[in-house]
Amino acid sequence: KAGVTQTPRYLIKTRGQQVTLSCSPISGHRSVSWYQQTPGQGLQFLFEYFSETQRNKGNFPGRFSGRQFSNSRSEMNVSTLELGDSALYLCASSLDVTEGELFFGEGSRLTVL
Amino acid sequence: AQSVTQLGSHVSVSEGALVLLRCNYSSSVPPYLFWYVQYPNQGLQLLLKYTSAATLVKGINGFEAEFKKSETSFHLTKPSAHMSDAAEYFCAVSGNFNKFYFGSGTKLNVKP
Question: Tens digit of pLDDT for each residue in B54-67?
Answer without folding.
Answer: 889 999 999 999 99
